[in-house]
Protein 1
Amino acid sequence: MEAATLTFSDLVASGLAAVEARMREATPAENPELDAALDQLLGSRGKRLRPTLVLLSAGLLGADQARTVDLAAAIELLHTATLVHDDLIDGSLLRRGHPTLNARWEGGATVLIGDYLFSRAAELAAATQSLRCMESFAGTLTTIVQGELNQLLGSNSTDLRTAYFERVYAKTGSLFELAAEAPAQIAGTRPATQRKLRDFGRNLGIAFQIVDDVLDFAGQAEEVGKPVASDLRNGLITLPTLCHIEANPSDAEEVDLLLRGELSDQAQGRLITAIRNSGGVAAARAEAEGYVGTCLALLGELPSDRPEHQALGDLAGYVLQRTQ
Amino acid sequence: MEAATLTFSDLVASGLAAVEARMREATPAENPELDAALDQLLGSRGKRLRPTLVLLSAGLLGADQARTVDLAAAIELLHTATLVHDDLIDGSLLRRGHPTLNARWEGGATVLIGDYLFSRAAELAAATQSLRCMESFAGTLTTIVQGELNQLLGSNSTDLRTAYFERVYAKTGSLFELAAEAPAQIAGTRPATQRKLRDFGRNLGIAFQIVDDVLDFAGQAEEVGKPVASDLRNGLITLPTLCHIEANPSDAEEVDLLLRGELSDQAQGRLITAIRNSGGVAAARAEAEGYVGTCLALLGELPSDRPEHQALGDLAGYVLQRTQ
């Protein structure tokens, strides 16, 4: 089988080019400043994993190509919009190794550019001409925003592990879930298949986010594009830290101090080294592997007559292998 | 005819109560702080003119009641979301005489609460189960945000009058347009009637915004809920000022200085008094009357067999009469 030897990125290359073009076409700018901001945001070429997942899921089911491209562009613009507001709220100055909008622009413009991307994403979602897809799109936006509010204002979950996985689902799992399921809504696939794709997407998104959090500890600053352990330095507890204190309860107190902003910089450095060198990072990676294992099991129950089946498995493997 | 003696507010009272309940039900809060913010935002009871227009337009056409309530709640939540971000960008500390969210909250939370209202509004719009209505909803959000971006970054229109009416359409005309037209999309009314309602809404919204701008000059601070001539003080040129300098070209230079931030406070006070006392305010009000006249002419071409026909005319009259 020739198709089976294609990597997933070869299989979606022409589709992704159409998605890139659609994103830029759907965001015409009346102001030169807005145009420059959109160039920066849409030209920074992230990994485009969400559009890739949309294209592969749609290909697996034979969904209409034009509506699939609209959907993939909608999801990537929605993702970009949430990053713009997220960076503004965090005060982050770097994203993917490049200055963020709010590093260059005043806050008001950054708020509005995020809003502009939300509205253009909603227009593209409406262009799919699927009510179910529109409903899922709006519901996913609510999940993401509610997750960010919980992160800022505090969630009801006092247990750190529960709070972590709620946040990971809201931040990443929910949009991957949408990316995998919405093509099935467009194609009008039967509900059982829709649910399996939804579960595949959610598990893949959670694995992706865990690996992101692992790379924040294990990666080199130059590769990740931000300082090492930046989450911890910002008082955000991720899975490597959770695994570390579960295995080393004596360090839990230091994490408590960190959460209260009372840990000295020197002690913070010691804690980061301990997490990097202990089994915390490896244990977190093992949990990500578990989520990818669930993806592969679900894939075994999905239609396997198209090359996208193999490519979805390759995509799941890639999520574990990536180093940035 | 008993119904004809009802005022428009009597006719929509029970519908508006359902809309209020729907708005609160559609915005459940997981955090006590979010809950308090939503109480403040949704409990401040603005005039609810947009939901009133939705209910009257739907009543005129016999649109489904439950979907109409979803639509009206979606439009008012969208309006509230834009106000939240708008106040944050302006740094406004008062709205309707009450402290704005950003007067009490940090910027990050205000951004996210606006986003939360956008997403809940989108979910309600999807609940109308009308693709056309969803498309209009998303397109209107784009118009509003693009208008705000033009205001912040500068628009292509160098002519002050053109720029003013573009801004008024984006800020207010477009959402009134949606409020009048979308019920016709839900009801599946024929296109000619949809267009007339759309035009009615747009003209009503423009009249409403002009009166708002007139009241900013002519009203008392206590009634309007913000300082007199706050727009001008913030460097924003509205119709009373435009009419004033069109009739008194010698004052155009002072307005130029104001726009460049080079007019002294004393000279600013003199200019405000001149606009209040000259024919500028009256001329602007006369233009608003012209837009309401267009509304009444359009109403004459719309179905007249229900009490909502009379009530839409009363609503147009109310827009001119209001003092706050």
Protein 2
Amino acid sequence: MDYRFSDRVLALKPSVIREILKNSSDPDVIPFSAGNPAPEAFPAREIAQISQAILHEHPIAALQYSITEGHPPLRQTVSAYMRAHHQIGRENDDILITSGAQQVMQLACKVLCNENDVVICETPSCIGSLNTFRSSKARLRGVAVEEDGMDMQALEQALKEEPNARLIYTIPNFQNPTGVTMSLAKRQKMYRLAKQYNVMILEDNPYGDLRISGSPVPAVKSFDEDGIVIYAGSFSKVISPGLRVGFSIAPKPVTQKMVVCKQADDVHTNILAQMICNAFINDYDYSGHLEHLRTVYRRRVQLTTDLINRYLAPYGITYHKAEGGLFLWCTLPKQADMQEFCRRSAEKKVCVVPGNAFLVDESAPCQSFRLNFSTPTLEQIEKGVAILAETAAQMLR
Amino acid sequence: MDYRFSDRVLALKPSVIREILKNSSDPDVIPFSAGNPAPEAFPAREIAQISQAILHEHPIAALQYSITEGHPPLRQTVSAYMRAHHQIGRENDDILITSGAQQVMQLACKVLCNENDVVICETPSCIGSLNTFRSSKARLRGVAVEEDGMDMQALEQALKEEPNARLIYTIPNFQNPTGVTMSLAKRQKMYRLAKQYNVMILEDNPYGDLRISGSPVPAVKSFDEDGIVIYAGSFSKVISPGLRVGFSIAPKPVTQKMVVCKQADDVHTNILAQMICNAFINDYDYSGHLEHLRTVYRRRVQLTTDLINRYLAPYGITYHKAEGGLFLWCTLPKQADMQEFCRRSAEKKVCVVPGNAFLVDESAPCQSFRLNFSTPTLEQIEKGVAILAETAAQMLR
């Protein structure tokens, strides 16, 4: 048969990372390319206990159809938690539980953007989200990421030039891939600009609880008195990504439309997983668990940056000193061929992600690559950096 | 803020059924409007055992990120099962595990239909699927459902008149809402027409294993030597809907595009749920379980149709004698006001779904309502039919 595909998928390519991952199930590969939580980050024993209790005490509730909005006790838990800890949520906001936070990006774009409408994005940014917007046939307009977050002059320029801009997409904490945290001043400026130009902000915060140094910066959603911010939260990095549970907190009219779309997309999110998240937050030491995660990742960042300083810095490779998250954004010296560096390292079974994969325009020049420190073991991190240093020695002398 | 929504969601309404369901958490309501498996249909004890084993033996695998295509052992299990039991799957086909079967409809439409392309549907048909197509801004063209399935003359007419038709959507077994099963001759004719007009078939079969009388009819996908059929399967009705696990079996080029879209939509389906389904099919008496379900539903159909014959037939209310599935499609006499019948019954806390909700054009005349016999208890079924008879006595004398 002559398969004719829709225009929206013709341009869409599989995520470079997922493709790399698929080929890196080889246990000999050192997966600096992934974004998986560390094995020691999973509350596996607690989840086993919780599941057993749920499936003995409420089996039908856990296994039956439910409402699209999400398991009501989890919605209440998230609502109370986000108000108490992050000053997020106003009278006019509502919560939707989603099948991972990525679904928030998909739904937000679906309800707000017609084809060819514009999503203003940080560039580089999360590949998954960029592909979500692309798959709705939104047009992407990139705004550069500086040391303290989005370039605000470029953002204002974009808002002026794009009358069909419908969303500003940002990861303000430990941005994927750069690790950059947006300053408070820039968050406030972005909020004012969004309000002025009548464009909604989509604030994606999967890593916010994984701060390992410095002081927390208030969420953009915490100043949202005007109902212009859609906040995307996730349990993937703090409980389990395999469970696929995320949530949005957004103005009620927007949430209502997202609910109708989610009904049509996947009816509702897995109920057992929602009940597990709810019980873990309420019945266990959730803040102790988050502190444990910070300890795990602090140790990994420390090791990784020590090794980079020792073995890669001498070749002129630099990195952004992230205060949290799961990634280090490393940059090769000007004259170096970044793609070739990644390719040669991959041949030695050390996988990092070429930075241009994260760009709005993937063909733009890029000297950086993304290095994840949560997936490999500590031994793999040591071995992996040594192999990157080998590649550097071959190419950068 | 002035919220401007995309054209694709402006026209979309919440599913009538889900809205009814939301308001019918009232335990006094008799939920003939739902589509939930009966409580005694859940293999709850087995799922509790399986979950415990998985979370003790393979906790990290169950909780970590995985690949979009689905948990590889489950894909193998489904592949082997569908070949052995249904002659489904050829060299050129591939399996994708989805977050419920509804996601198959969403992905198929997303990869094949541009906005304003046409999906040819049975009318009436599953509201969830119709809304999925609407939410992608596909245009629906309805083809009437006869006693033995889609009207083939009307289908051919539609194919002639709609050069932008991209999909023929059908539920060939115990169709939702009519309960109709498409005859073998019509399945073959539909296949020939689809091939002739170069339009793919989307075969949705959530109820196929719930046959309670008559003989199985081969799946349309079982004759697919040409790679023109996308088959949607579901574990919602046979294991658990809350787990949200379904699958597609489709030609490789189509599956590849669906995978890329699913990556962008929700990354992958909950892994623990995939592992539960896989273990249940392989390690337990799956065919015995299906036989148990058939016994459960046979008893419920028998009771419900006995009651309808006794209490509603005298008022001229008829129904299609379905050979399986979860629904009875009941039709009021010509002069009766169906909407009013449903409204009055709902006031007495007996909820059925007005038939026009399932139509491609919801404003078209309709004398039928859908009555579900799997959700209410046997006592509720008795009481509910008696109350429907009360409404009939008021309105149809």
Protein 3
Amino acid sequence: MKKQQKILVLGGDGYLGWPTAMYFSRRGNEVAVIDNFNKRKWERQIGVVPLVPILPLDKRVALWMEITGSVITPYVGDLKDSRFVRRVLKSFQPDVIIHYGEQPSAPFSMMNTVRAVETQVNNVVGTLNVIYAMHQIVPDAHLVKLGTMGEYGTPNIAIEEGWLDVTHKGRSDRVLYPKKPGSFYHLSKVHDSHNLEFACRVWGLRVTDLNQGVVYGIETEETGLATGLQTSFHYDAIFGTALNRFCVQAVTGVSITPYGKGGQRRGYLNIMDTLQCVELAALNPASQGEFRVFNQFTEVFSVNELAELVRNAAKDVGISASIRHIKNPRKEDEEHYYEPVHTALPKLGLKPQLLSSTLVESMLGKIIEHKDAIRKTSIKPRVSWMK
Amino acid sequence: MKKQQKILVLGGDGYLGWPTAMYFSRRGNEVAVIDNFNKRKWERQIGVVPLVPILPLDKRVALWMEITGSVITPYVGDLKDSRFVRRVLKSFQPDVIIHYGEQPSAPFSMMNTVRAVETQVNNVVGTLNVIYAMHQIVPDAHLVKLGTMGEYGTPNIAIEEGWLDVTHKGRSDRVLYPKKPGSFYHLSKVHDSHNLEFACRVWGLRVTDLNQGVVYGIETEETGLATGLQTSFHYDAIFGTALNRFCVQAVTGVSITPYGKGGQRRGYLNIMDTLQCVELAALNPASQGEFRVFNQFTEVFSVNELAELVRNAAKDVGISASIRHIKNPRKEDEEHYYEPVHTALPKLGLKPQLLSSTLVESMLGKIIEHKDAIRKTSIKPRVSWMK
């Protein structure tokens, strides 16, 4: 029943990009990916590695072909190079562009001036080149752009999906939802969103901005087809998220360390739901000129709730873990109101797979398998927001 | 009665930067300027020149010393070079940084991908380097940053000064005023504002963001001291504003050409009032951690009102000018609600000098003096928002 489309995945070598490419390929779409391997370069520069080694893109693409008979076409190049972007769009003529091709870490962006600038230039310029090339070459294509729930910060009012109806001094307007992001990385996504809204308004582009929560899990139907197809699992303080770090801490027998009071509440979703959401967006494109925003997560947890979930799941597999709060390296509210709306994707048909102790236990199992590869020192926070 | 301060003017070779440097120097402050002459480079690249030739910065600084006995220290370098920015801040130790150092033209930013990227990178990276260096070297200094009223667009509700009190679903918050800017240039200023608000919130910087209207006039007390001290007058379609273009059109005997219906309403102010506003901001700094926004203009006009003002002033000096509406190269509302608040600067003591036919007549007089230097072809719009 599903429409077959030409899908171009930006950042196709990454944690989400690669599973997305396989997901669409397996469903009969024609898939190409772009990557410049910046993420792998940054990992080497700061001295972290994913828990399980990840094959190079060309090897994964070849393995995919071997196993499924389907082609995923890799284009190797930098989105900051506008001529490269135009060349790929001319050659591939995508119907949908799914854009994960950005520097994804808040702590990385807060390391120093150079990393802050690198993050904002990489992310903003890449997206600018993509929208310019779309406008010139594939004006009817649909851009599905990954943003983050972190763009909103933690306002004292409900977080709507991208837009807010305001009445002020007796008059009304629908405005972009005001943002208060928490790092130069999150700010880069806010800048992207403003550039995208403009491109829709002035050029009539179709854009869906997915303000995604924190993704957990590493297994999808496709990664399960072969060891060589798996995607990256980061547990370090730069590229790893809280749930991953907590699981690795439990396995290595050190305390689980929430930052500060641990009352920080955020939206979360399973990697399988990311794929579902992106597919729903692709199958139900934004209208011409529409800047559409979805809040993409399925559940809200506090950091403390995650820490307890991991402690309890660890107990079930025979590991005794303790929780120890450490000084928060970030500057953020540690107790706050949080009421983000997230109804648009369920309305399109999203069937969420909620976080369970079963899933955490399976993550713990995977980590135990690779316990010897864990670099314990990389979990400790090394970037202070205030430095 | 005025406090003497160390004032660093970024973009000190420019239309507003140079008069600002002289203004503060003449009032006994210690003044330094930074410039990399990018603006002069861009003028050469696109083939436009100011109506009256402008001396190089070193010659203007020497002349200023000769006439007033005061030193304006020039630092030549690029704000995109973080080490250069740090070096200047360490050496000069400013109390106030007045930041005009950005690519200032909307049509320039809309020429093509390369110019869009150049504009956003130049403006955003420069400001990022400045705030990082302030945080590290002069955390108590006050940044007075020039933004633009064009960041707001033309919403259907009153435009407040940077922040908006919102009540939503029974709860309240004070949020950044939502933005809907009209070009990649205006977007770059929106990006700056978000980065600045973050730097105040997380690092405790003091920032005043001046959302300035369209500035007219080229004469200040200091430019009047010698011909060699004058500032630039642009009338071309890239760097010139509507009032300047209309005056030059009247003098050269071609029709005054408002874009589209001419109902576009904007805030305007005299260059002398820019200097007053910047001084008021410098003398009354933002508090530590405060991101303060002032809407900096004194009057609102529609493009049609400006066209008629010029036609009438021209008539008074014996020139018969006609008005002819041309296709709008921009994508913008040509008839819209516009109610921008601008009370903060008057509360600090701003005494505006409103736009009069006398001022327009004096501009016409100046243009007539240099009539032979006018390049008529440069007035015609050459950048389409839709291309």
Protein 4
Amino acid sequence: MKTQSGIDLSSYRSEGFIGRYQRLIKDTVIPYQYSVLCDKAKGAEKSHVIQNFINAAKAVRGEDVGDGFYGMVFQDSDAAKWIEAAAYSLHRFPDKDLEVTVDGLIDIIANAQDEDGYLDTYFTVKDKDKRWKNLLEGHELYCSGHMMEAACAYYEATGKRKLLDVMLKNAAHIYDVFIKQAHEGCPGHPEVELGLMKMYRLTGDKKCLELAEHFINTRGTDPDFFRRERASRDWTVWENNAEDNSYQQSGVPLRQAENATGHAVRAVYLYTAMADLSSQNSDRELFEACRRLWNSITRKQMYITGGIGSTVLGEAFSVDYDLPSDTAYAETCASIGLMFFASRMLENEVRGEYADVMETAFYNTVLAGMQLDGKRFFYVNPLEVVPGISGVSPTHRHDLPERPQWYACACCPPNVARLISSLGKYAYGENGDTAFCHLFAGGSVKFRNGMSFTCKTAYPYGFDVTYDIKKGGRLAVRIPAWSGTYGVKLCGKEISPEIKDGYCYIDVADGDTVALTLDGSPRFAYASTKIPQLSGKTAVCRGPLVYCFEGADNGGDVLSISLVGGGKISAGEYDEALLCGTTKLTVQALRRTAGDSLYSFTAPDTAECEAVAVPYYTWGNRGVNQMRVWMDEKDSPIVRK
Amino acid sequence: MKTQSGIDLSSYRSEGFIGRYQRLIKDTVIPYQYSVLCDKAKGAEKSHVIQNFINAAKAVRGEDVGDGFYGMVFQDSDAAKWIEAAAYSLHRFPDKDLEVTVDGLIDIIANAQDEDGYLDTYFTVKDKDKRWKNLLEGHELYCSGHMMEAACAYYEATGKRKLLDVMLKNAAHIYDVFIKQAHEGCPGHPEVELGLMKMYRLTGDKKCLELAEHFINTRGTDPDFFRRERASRDWTVWENNAEDNSYQQSGVPLRQAENATGHAVRAVYLYTAMADLSSQNSDRELFEACRRLWNSITRKQMYITGGIGSTVLGEAFSVDYDLPSDTAYAETCASIGLMFFASRMLENEVRGEYADVMETAFYNTVLAGMQLDGKRFFYVNPLEVVPGISGVSPTHRHDLPERPQWYACACCPPNVARLISSLGKYAYGENGDTAFCHLFAGGSVKFRNGMSFTCKTAYPYGFDVTYDIKKGGRLAVRIPAWSGTYGVKLCGKEISPEIKDGYCYIDVADGDTVALTLDGSPRFAYASTKIPQLSGKTAVCRGPLVYCFEGADNGGDVLSISLVGGGKISAGEYDEALLCGTTKLTVQALRRTAGDSLYSFTAPDTAECEAVAVPYYTWGNRGVNQMRVWMDEKDSPIVRK
């Protein structure tokens, strides 16, 4: 089963949980982020990104560049990701004012493009002679990739070609440089590869495909490239280690790669493009490499929350089974990239494990990246926070106990916005006559193959999912691996549909109703004993949600709580007023009474208690307090009687 | 009770466990380390320290400096610490050949002293004009301090004054610079203060006392000093952050200090000198500061092994209760410095807690710093090691699973050597008519007050300690806080002596025998629930020894083992052949069977087992394997029936 692809976004009208999030992006996040781009958001770090484009346009015209360039070398990408998010949002929430704003920004961007098609404000403003001379750190191709994604998204949403034409011209320029003139090397930060694939799929432009193939097929074939490039110039943008091929995934030809290594966002953006290309070209060898990399991530290097890249040093994958909770990096963008990778793997082969991971990453790390009001963001997603240590201890400075407003390096907030507003593409897919339901996302959906239905569900807090079929065909619904039991009814009658690789396949006719019931019972999770930090501990989950224990629900102290192994665990009523609507879990637990001394030879007093958990994605929304996902587990004398 | 001081080393003739270690230092460590100093040790990092002195002597004579200076800015101190260790060893093991070697080295060192008394090979060889212009990083005073300690030790051991005269001249030079010429500032790395105090106590030289007072009383009164000093020069030795007053304990006047901060070795060397000065001058205010700093370390920032300075970043104290096992720094030298500090606190007031900590640091972290054969050394002492992660993961690079031979920065190995060979000074003390037994160290001891006895014990593996009194008086023996029960017999008859602040006081006559019986039963230890990494875990101890679980005794895998809370724990027979003589502990435990997946929703199979522990100081002597001090603790269904 292959080459099934995401639906047109305009054909998914979200409701329910996903609907609320998409509305939040539209009402709060997109306007707020635009005000940041314009440097009009109070208290946010300076962006200057729009002014960078304006100043670059002056440089293109040979004029004085005013206050020049400000920000990270990849500042342009903030604008690109914002346009992309806005474009996705326009499908669900048409908005002429927003379109006018985007059109204006696109005009500004178009003016910043050089005559030859080059587009990057950092080098255009600062020094044109340095173009393409620092692929390691320069991020020119990275910024192009993001703008290509934006161009595709905006064209799909509005039919307006201006940015698409700008980026086709940009792609042609890159083609000239890297293919015709055979400029050597590949991007330090992968991203353009997946942007080029999107451009190719949308426009059929062969240069885009050829360029994506070029960057993927040559990467790692010359492990000395970045060192040579570094030696050839006497300047840097930021001091990146040119010889750390592991960091930039450039040490071995990608088709031979065995392990996911290095900067986690770079890795998953690259692997996404590899999977995209392998499905496009039915390239089995490339797909096998993707599968090895997928397994390396999801079977040895992933948090239970779908977080990846466990170490702050290089924002990177560490070694297998090194998954500390307290010093975790687990960047929001990396989990978004993991969703990209998962969705492209699904286009190669429909297997539940890809969608399972996609769902885990979405409902836990990605959503945790944003405050419930859409106004503050986490870049780093630890699985344990202890005020006084987190954000303060030298080794925990990156693990903040509360979300900051905006970052100087603002990759995560707009990434969350574009992911959520395009969720339909991840939730639904199709392949010939089959409609795929990868995620349980309420609302109405139409497929290119003619099928359509309305999905009704209170997911992730309700576990009944109903599909009211308007136009029938073949329906493929994922049965999540976490669901110990499940039931399927067709028009009220229990059926036992064919299950293949985690999906159940049902032929449906117009007017049918398919009702899926998943296992909504809370459950304990256990980690491999190969993970030193987690061996012997337990976590609690319900549906796709990993739960956590916060001080707010537990008398201010979760460190002294142990869960009773195999003890009682129960879900409360859904509380609309709590944390934008959630369900707490209550778990049988024991609390140790702490003495004053660091160490003692007397067993601490232990009392029975109930520990209360909330979904991980909601943590840090009630002020600074302790938070812990993985809990000590003790057997209980009461349970054992 | 105050101003009790360590005995003359020549009056302690060690036997038993301490005797073996002192012999190992004499037979193996001192010769090996000398071969390193001469660059004749195969496989060790280059030292060049003796050649540095030879080359500095050339510079003093105005000759070409040959191959110049090599090594760390504080390379001189390696020679100093070696002389000091050799000197202490000579008390126990007179050795004319060793004396000839030391004399030769002292001649070389003396030749490197400038006419004005300045002594530091780095600046003498490299650039005399830079003297005293980089107190932050230059380590001139640090090297002087160590050479002062060496000079005192060698004079005490042999009566030879040459190095003492060199260092008195050096002290006079420092006095000229910092007192007469009022050169501002204090040393970036404290050490000279305690060296000066030793010089003063030995020689009565008032300049030494005045200098120590000067550096202690002025430190921190001008928190801007290091920044100004940095701004005044256009060169660095290594790039130290001049504005990090916390790192170099220079942010507040020391008398006002509340918390132990920064580089742990710097901290405890400084606090040692403060405590030394407060006892010398009966300076109550200074002593109160020492007490606050002592409590800050031992009640909030110390590992159960007596390790301190938990973070690799700055080799420093972190924040309270941040005591990770796996990424611990816990430098060997810092625990040695903690013993110094404890011993000086005992000179201010006799309280068991000082000696308890001193004992814990010695028997666990300090001894762990050296391989049992005396040939390899740990700088860093983690409480958990997992091959594949430790020493490999970016955040665990410093936590090595086996001891290296010699370090470029070789502070720890010679520090271990001088500590062990001078152990008598820490074990025994006196005050007027009272002989203090702080540590249980077998062998014969004579006190200046005329008392003498022979201590017989198999400690730390036997818990009977007998004192055969030759010359009587008042005996004060510590009762360790860990000893739940104890008994004292005087000439075979049970007595209930006065106990004050952790010591029992007994009047003894010539020919008496005092027999102390301590609690040798193995015991569980528990950590405060304020320590996130340790809450809910348990460790096992016996006597002063913290135990650890190594793969070698536990089927290669300790991560899957949980101890049964309050379960059976038993000590085996003392095994002379094992790890240079040790006793294993066996603990009732459970082993989880690991599945292949990272996470699972099925409770892992758990089977009863026996976990075997060995003393922490012996770990890593049987090849690379897992090691863990703090274990998960589960209640057992069997125990609870």
